[in-house]
Amino acid sequence: MATTRRLIVKRLGGALVARPDALLDVASGMLSAAYIVRQRGLAHHRAAGMALHPGNRWAPFDERQPFRLASVSKMVCMFGFMTLIARGLVDLDADVSTYLGAQLRHPAFPNVAITARRLLSHTSGLRNGIDFPVPFNQALLNRFDRAAREPDFGGWFAPANETPGEWFAYSDTNFAVIAQIAERVTAMRFDCFMRETLFAPLRLDIGYNWSEVSQRKRERTAAGCRWADGVWAPQVDANPPSAPEVALYRAEGDAASTSADYSIGMNGFALAPHGGLRSSLLDMDALARHFLGSSGVNPMGTPAWIFSPDRPNGASENGFYQAYGLGMQIPLGRPSDSFFGADSADWRGHCGDAYGWMTGLWWNTRTQTTLVYAINGMPETNRRQAAQTALTAAEQAVIDRALAEVK
C-alpha cells in the first residue's frame, strides 16, 4: 500500500491545532482524515492528523483505529436484514405490523401499510420525534401510539400531506424499526444477529455500540471531536465501555440498567442500527469489497425513490439526496450528486455524519473500485460547501484526492 504522511500538529497553549498536509488537501482546521481506495486489487491509502484515544492520549490517526461510523451503519444494517428477505422470513412489501406483533400505521393514513421496503428507502412516513431516540428499556411502539394523539404527532410522523410510499424524508427511526423486526423474527438481539450474519463470517472485530468488539481494539478508539473554546473536545467515545460491555442509550437518570435488562423486540433504537457501528477504516474497506459483489442488483442497488425537481416528492437536503435504494444512496450524476465525477451514476454506498465524524463507504459497479474515508472534527454548522456538489468541501476534497490515485 502507499506510504502515509501526517498532518503537522502544533501545540498552542495545550490545544492541538491541525495544519493541512500537502498530500491530503482537506479543508483547513479538520482534526484528521483518511481514505482507502482500491481498484483491481491495488490499494492506496492516506491518513493525516491526530486521534484522541481513551485516557486522553493523543496519537497520529491511522486506518486501524475504530470510530463511530454514523449513518454508514444503516447500510451495513440493511445488508444483514436482507438475509432475512433472502431466507423468506420477511417480505419486503408486507405490512410490518405482522412482524412487530402490533399495528404500526401513520395516524393520518390508517389504511396505508408501512412495509420494510418503505422503511429501508425512508419513504415510510416515520420521523425522528421531538424526544428522539427512545431509551432502550422503553417500548418504541408505545411511543408511536402516544405520538398519534399529540400535536404534530410529537414529530414522530410526517405531516398529513406527505403520503407514506410517495414522500422521501431521511429518518433514523426507520432503521430502529428494521432492527426491531430483525429481533422479532430471529429472537436474537440485533447486535448478535449482525455478528452471526455478517461480521463473524468476514472475521471482523466490529460491532454496534461496541458489542463484541475486543478490548484491544477499544483501547485504540478515536473519539469524535469538535473544536470548542480553543481545544479539541470529545463528543463521543472518549472512554468506551470495557469489553464485553455494550453502550446502551439510557433515559436521563437511569444509571442502573444494563444489557441484562434488554428485552428483545421491544425497542430497535437500543443498539443504534442507525449510526452506532464501531469500525476502523480497514474494516470498512473489507465491507466495501464484500458489498461490491452483492449490491448492484435488485432490489438494493435500484432506486426505490427518485427526487422530482419539477414536482418535489421528498426532502433532498439541498440536492444531497437525488435517489435512494434500500439502505443505500444512489447518485444519479445530477450536478448536486456528482460526487465522483462523470461516472457518479455507477457508484453505490452511503455517507455518515455525526459527532464530528464524516464518513463514506462506496463502490463503483462498473470499474469495481471501492472507496472508504473518514474525516474527524467537522463542525455542526457553518461548514464550507463544495463548489459543485452538495457535499462539504472537506468530503469532496478527500474523494477527489482518493480517486486521483486510481485514474
Could you characterize what this model shows?
This protein has 407 residues and is α+β, with helices and mostly antiparallel strands. The chain has a domain at 8-69 and 215-246 and 280-404. The protein is built from nine helices and 15 strands. A six-stranded antiparallel beta sheet has the order 5-4-3-15-14-13, with helices on both faces. The protein has a three-stranded antiparallel beta sheet with strand order 6-10-7. A two-stranded antiparallel ribbon has the order 1-2. Strand 4 and strand 5 (57-60) form a beta hairpin. Helix 1 (72-86) runs parallel beside helix 5 and helix 1 packs across helix 6 (190-199). It is globular, with a radius of gyration of 21 Å. The protein starts with 7 loop residues before the first strand and ends with a helix. 50% of the residues are buried. The model is unreliable at 1-20 (pLDDT under 50).
Strand content: 15-25%
- DSSP strand tally: 15
- Shape summary: globular
Q: Topology as H/E string? A: EEEEEEHHHHHHEHEEEHEEEEEH
Sheet with most strands: 6 strands, antiparallel
Write down the overall mean pLDDT: 91
Question: Can you describe this structure in just a few lines?
Answer:
This protein has 407 residues and is of the alpha+beta class. It has helices spanning 72-86, 97-100, 116-120, 140-147, 173-186, 190-199, 215-218, 281-292, 393-404, and strands at residues 8-12, 15-19, 32-39, 42-53, 57-60, 67-68, 207-208, 224-228, 231-236, 277-279, 305-306, 323-324, 347-354, 357-364, 370-376.
